[in-house]
């Protein structure tokens, strides 16, 4: 016969839970959906509450499917049926090496502006739902504007401690973001959490502490990197503000760190927590797909550029005055247009300075993070934005204004990965869910090519690469693109794949995600990310063991960063994932039809 139906309760035809192993031509082995309730199969199966259709790459409690030839060429008889398992979870060790942990971002306002953990019963219920779905952990913003709101060095971690304790109680791991930016003004920002008021007060007398565009408009989302080393904050520099905050976090959360609850510290390095300039912001009128504007016209960065230009023998060079406005297209500007300023010696000098300032900013703060968490069993991480619009235009204008000096003949992301490697930090990238075909043609978007370039660069620099979706998605197409990017060459049956993402964080926990249909698809997505293995609490079993954080390696010299700008072809990428998530309703109907056909 071409199928086996075996109860996990120890016998055939169990009423509570059946596992379906199908070989031959009855089912496509690439499709392994989880089905939650199939009723009335004509006198054969009564009230089957849960059926899992599993193929060769799936976890097997009964048969090591990797010992069999590909489905379609072998069949298994009932005489070969093994005994039921005695352990609740068993793993195929080689397949487990393909396991990609899944984390879920918590709501932006889970801790209120008043530093209160509100609606704990609802959060507890949602966390338990995530855990039951096999989710590995959650990510949460730890807002500077909340914790240090009362005054310099007046930290109040009490609400976050309550939240962390609940996460721990629910059996989830935690990724903590050191969020030094304002919440509000970016896509998806549902709440407003400003920078600490005492910092904003300093900005009233010295507005140049904020990023500034050519027109002089201030952006209060994040302090300009021009004040990184200016002692303007009651005698402290901006870097010292961030360093002191992280040291206080470690001191006050040491029990959670030692218990293994907190595994990642993602260090916020700019707007939206990303290592970039605030070149595109809705609060200043930007709308997609505008090219954005350079943000280096505060007096501190202007002075630094003047010094750099003078040192290069060009005191006459100033900051760009021909790069357009937020919602321009590349071709409408002199800087980004055909044979534009970006191709000239002056333009190249500016773009090199602008992008290197950003990398140095990240490098300096991550060095402080490394000092703060030295010896802790945590990983550091930093996030880079997925600026996919105008990627297929010659000037890559939107990337350049954001600080990513990326062109066809120059890699703007591998230098960032090289910098991160010095701190043993994870490279976290966005827009994993996006496909070119879903974007506006006139914006010359290239999210797929961008992701391939960035991830390949990270792997070549031997850093761990993680990622997240940029926009909330609940459909199989978005999930399948994320699965493809997580394992570009698919499942390896011989152990660790050549390229595999370190982890994926889903944006974000919401009532919409937990709606019945959406959550069913999401649970399937989690199972596929886990390579169809059960949830695994032991990070070492899938090569994610975390040792004590070592001291950062020596600082890179400019030549090291410039060498990393050499463009390289991305690694091979499959056309589609081999762990496909299918639309639940369609798969359910198809599975029922095929089940009926077995017993005719």
Please trace the helix and strand order, writing H or E for each element.
EEEEHEHEHHEHEEHHEHHEHHEHEHEHHH
What portion of residues is helical? 25-40%
Give me the Rg, rounded.
26 Å
Q: Helical element count?
A: 16
Number of strands: 14
Profile the largest sheet: 8 strands, parallel, barrel
Task: Determine the strand fraction and express it as a percent band.
Answer: 5-15%
How far apart lie the N and C ends? 13 Å
Mean pLDDT: 87
Major β-sheet strand ordering: 5-6-7-10-11-12-13-14
Low-confidence stretches: 1-87
* Dominant shape: globular
Structural class: alpha/beta
Structural overview:
The active site is at residues 274, 468. Its EC number is 3.2.1.2. Belongs to the glycosyl hydrolase 14 family. Pfam families: Glyco_hydro_14. Helix 9 (345-372) runs parallel beside helix 11 (414-422) and helix 13 (476-486) packs parallel to helix 14 (516-529). This protein is 30% helix and 11% strand. The model is unreliable at 1-87 (pLDDT under 50). The strands form three sheets. The protein has an eight-stranded parallel β-barrel, surrounded by four helices. It is of the alpha/beta class.
Notable characteristics:
beta-amylase activity; four-stranded mixed β-sheet; 600 residues; alpha/beta; globular; 16 helices; glycosidase; polysaccharide degradation; eight-stranded parallel beta barrel; Beta-amylase
């Amino acid at each position: 016969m071409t199928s086996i139906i075996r109860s996990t309760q120890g016998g055939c035809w169990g009423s509570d839970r059946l596992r379906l192993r199908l070989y031959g031509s009855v089912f496509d082995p690439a499709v392994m959906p989880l089905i939650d309730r199939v009723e009335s199969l004509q006198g054969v199966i009564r009230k089957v509450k849960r059926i899992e259709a599993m193929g060769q790459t799936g976890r097997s409690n009964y048969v090591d499917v990797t010992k069999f030839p590909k489905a379609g060429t072998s069949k298994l008889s009932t005489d070969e049926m093994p005994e039921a398992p005695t352990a609740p979870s068993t793993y195929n060790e080689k397949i487990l090496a393909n396991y990609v942990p899944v984390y879920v971002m918590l709501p932006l306002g889970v801790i209120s502006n008043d530093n209160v953990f509100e609606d704990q019963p609802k959060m507890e219920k949602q966390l338990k739902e995530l855990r039951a779905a096999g989710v590995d952990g959650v990510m949460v913003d730890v807002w500077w504007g909340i914790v240090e709101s009362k005054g310099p060095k007046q930290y109040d971690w009490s609400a976050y401690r309550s939240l962390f304790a609940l996460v721990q109680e629910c059996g989830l791991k935690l990724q903590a973001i050191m969020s030094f930016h304002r919440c509000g003004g970016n896509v998806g920002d549902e709440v407003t959490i400003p920078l600490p008021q005492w910092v904003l007060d300093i900005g009233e007398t010295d507005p140049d502490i904020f990023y500034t565009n050519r027109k002089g408009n201030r952006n209060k989302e994040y302090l300009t990197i021009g004040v990184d080393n200016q002692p303007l904050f009651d005698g402290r520099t901006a870097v010292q503000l961030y360093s002191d905050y992280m040291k206080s976090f470690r001191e006050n959360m040491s029990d959670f760190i030692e218990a293994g609850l907190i595994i990642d510290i993602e260090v916020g390095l700019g707007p939206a927590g990303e290592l970039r300039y605030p070149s595109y912001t809705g609060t200043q009128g930007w709308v997609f797909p505008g090219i954005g504007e350079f943000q280096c016209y505060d007096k501190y960065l202007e002075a630094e550029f003047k010094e750099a230009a003078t040192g290069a023998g060009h005191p006459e060079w100033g900051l760009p005055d021909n790069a357009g406005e937020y919602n321009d297209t590349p071709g409408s500007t002199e800087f980004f247009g055909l044979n534009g300023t970006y191709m000239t010696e002056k333009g190249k000098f500016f773009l090199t300075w602008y992008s290197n300032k950003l990398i140095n900013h990240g490098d300096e703060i991550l060095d402080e993070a490394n000092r703060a968490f030295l010896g802790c069993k945590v990983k550091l991480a930093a996030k880079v934005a997925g600026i996919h619009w105008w990627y297929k235009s010659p000037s890559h204008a939107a990337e350049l204004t954001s600080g990513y000096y990326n062109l066809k003949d120059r890699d703007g992301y591998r230098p960032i990965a090289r910098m991160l490697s010095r701190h043993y930090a994870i490279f976290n990238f966005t827009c994993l869910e996006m496909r070119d075909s879903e974007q506006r043609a006139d914006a010359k978007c290239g999210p797929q090519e961008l992701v391939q370039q960035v991830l390949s660069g990270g792997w070549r620099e031997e850093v761990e690469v993680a990622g997240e979706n940029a926009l909330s998605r609940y459909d199989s197409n978005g999930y399948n693109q994320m699965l493809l990017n997580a394992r570009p060459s698919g499942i390896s049956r011989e152990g660790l794949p050549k390229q595999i993402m370190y982890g994926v964080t889903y944006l974000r926990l919401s009532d919409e995600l937990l709606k019945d249909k959406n959550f069913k698809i999401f649970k399937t997505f989690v199972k596929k990310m886990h390579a169809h293995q059960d949830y695994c609490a032991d990070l070492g079993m899938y090569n994610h063991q975390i040792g004590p954080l070592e001291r950062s390696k020596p600082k890179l010299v400019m030549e090291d960063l410039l060498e990393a700008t050499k463009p390289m072809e991305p690694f091979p990428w499959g056309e589609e994932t081999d762990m496909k998530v299918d639309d639940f309703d369609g798969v359910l109907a198809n599975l029922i039809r095929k089940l009926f056909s077995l017993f005719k």
